[in-house]
Amino acid sequence: MEKVEMEVVFQAEETVRGSEEKPAGGPATAAEKRRVRPLRLDRLILPLLVFVMVLGLWQAISQSVAPMLPGPIQTVAKSWDLIREPFFDRGPNDKGLGWQLLYSLRRVAVGFSMAAAAGIPIGFLIGAVPAFHRALNPLIQILRPISPLAWLPIGLATFKAANPAAYFVIFITAIWPIILNTAFGVQKIPADYLSVARVLKLSPWRRFTKILLPATLPYTFTGLRISVGIAWLVIVAAEMLTGGIGIGFFVWDEWNNLSLEHIILAIFVIGIVGLILDEAMGRLGRRFDYEMR
Amino acid sequence: MKCDEAVDRDLIKRIETNYLEISRVSKTFEGANGIYPAVQGIDLKIRKGEFVTLIGHSGCGKSTLLSMVAGLVAPSEGGIVLEGKEIDGPGPDRGVVFQSHALLPWLTCRENIALAVEAVFPQMSRKEQKDRVSHFLDMVGLTEAAQKRPAELSGGMRQRVGIARALAIRPKVLLLDEPFGALDALTRGHLQDELLRIWEKFGTTVLMVTHDVDEALLLSDRVVMMTRGPAATIGRIVPIPFRRPRSRMELVRQTGYQHWKGEILEFLYGEGDAKRRPGGGDLQKTGAPEEGPAFVSTTDNR
Ligand SMILES: Nc1ncnc2c1ncn2[C@@H]1O[C@H](COP(=O)(O)OP(=O)(O)OP(=O)(O)O)[C@@H](O)[C@H]1O
Ligand SMILES: [Mg+2]
What we know:
The complex is a heterodimer. Chain A is mainly α. Chain A has helices at residues 30-34, 41-63, 72-78, 80-84, 97-128, 130-143, 148-159, 162-187, 191-199, 204-242, 247-256, 260-288.
C-alpha cells in the first residue's frame, strides 16, 4: 500500500495522546476497558493516608517555621462561613465562593469554546493539507510557549474591557493543544483507511464524516482535555490582574485583606473544580473514542 | 465502465484472454534515503475469471504490484489495462481485501459493508442496499455478528467481513493481499474453501498475494513467482492443472501435487542462492510430470 507521508511533526509533546491511559502491553479489549474496577481498599486508604500526612505536615509548618500561615484547623474554623454559604450575595463586591466560581467558569466556557471552535478546523486543515502545515507550523511553535499573562496586556489594549481580555487570553493559550492533537490525529489515520475511501470513491463529505472525523476525535478530545486544564489555570491568574468577580480575583482580594484562611480554602476549591473539569472532559472523550466504547 | 457496444468478436476474445494486462510495469520509490527500485519490468496477462496467486519473498514487491493494480499506487513505468481501459486510480471495479483487513473500527460489520454498498450503489433504494448488505453478511456467515464492531470479532471473522465488503461492491477484479496470513491453519482452511466457493459462484477475476504454497496450489489457476528485490520481477509462472472443484483432501493425494509444491519451493529457496543465479538456467528448467503441461516461463529480466 502506498504509505501516506506520515511525518510525525508534533511528537515529543506531553500534549500528544497515547502516553496516557494506554497500557504498554497488548491492546485491551473494549470489554476489559469497560469493566469497572473493584473498589479496593488500597485505592482508598493509601490516598487518605497521604492526605492526612500532608495535613499533619502543614500543621507542623504553620506551628514552627511559618507562624503567619494558618494551620488546617484554623483554616476551616475561620472560613466556615464561606463553606457553609457559598451563594450569598451582598452587592457586587461581596459574593459567595459559589458565585465567584460560576463567574470564572463562565469565562472559561466562553474562551474554551472559542478555542475549540477555531482549533478543531485549523487542526484538521493542518493535518490534512501539508501546505497548511508548512505555512502555520512556525507561527504555532512561536506562539505556543508564550506565557498566558504576557497576552493579557494585548487583550486589554485590544478589547478595552476585562472580560473580553480574559476570553482572549484563554483562547490564545488553550487553542494550541487542540490544534496540535487534532492535526496529529489526522496524520495518524492509518493509510489503509484512506485507501478504503479511495477504492470506494467516497464523497468528500462521507470521507470526512465516516473516516477522518471518527479516527481523529479521540486525539481531539485529548487536546480538549489538556486545554480545559490550561484554561482553568489561566483564568485564575488572569482574574487576579483584571479584577471583577471570579475566583482569581477573590484570591487577590483576600490577600489584600490578609485573610490567608480564605485563600487556602479557595486553593482547595480551585483544585477540586479543576479535577472535575478534567474528569468531565475525559468522560466525554471516552464516549467518542471508538476504542473505548 | 461499460464495454463499447460496437466491438467485434476478436476484440472481445482478446479482451477476455487479456482481461487484465500488466505491461512492463516498474515502480521506483523515492524516499528520504534515496530511490529504491521495488519492482521492474512486470508483464502479466490475466484471463477473465482466472484465479492468480502471487508468491515471493517478503519485501519483494507483491503488495506494491497489487496496489498498482488497485490504482492506489501509480506505476513509475508501464501501464495496467483492465477490460481495455487503462487504470489511472482506485475504483470500486477492483475490490481490495487488505492484509490488515482495514475495517473501520468505529463501524459495526453491517455498517462497514453498508458504507461500501451505499457509496458504490447510490442509485439503489435504501431497502435494496440493506438487502444487499444482509446478503453478503449471510454469504460469509456473519449474520449473527452484524452488530458487532471489528474489535469484538476474531481475526478470521474480520477477514470475512473484509471479503464481504470487497465482494459487495461487485468488483470485476478481486485483489487480496495475504488475506489469511495471520490466521491459524484451521480458520485459514475454512476461509480458503469459502473463497473458492464464492469465486466459483461469481466468476470474479482474482489476484491474490500469499506466502503459503499449499494455499496457492489449492486456489490458483496460475502461480506467479516473483524474484527477490530490489528490482523484483516475475521469475516464473506455473499453471496449476488440477481439476476443479478442488478439495484440499483430494488435492494432497493427487499425483503431481508434491512435484508442483517442490517446484515452487525450489524456486523460492533456490532463487536466493548465489550459485544458481548466473544465467538463471535452473529457472528455465521444465520437468512437468506426466499429467501437467510444461511450465510457462518468463525470462528473468536481470
Ligand atoms: N511507500 C514506499 N516508499 C518506499 N519504499 C517502499 C514503499 N512501499 C514499499 N516500499 C519498498 O518496496 C519493497 C516492496 O514492498 P512490498 O510491501 O510491496 O513488499 P511485499 O512483497 O508485499 O512484502 P511482504 O511479503 O512482506 O508483504 C520493500 O523493500 C519496501 O521497503
Ligand atoms: Mg505485502
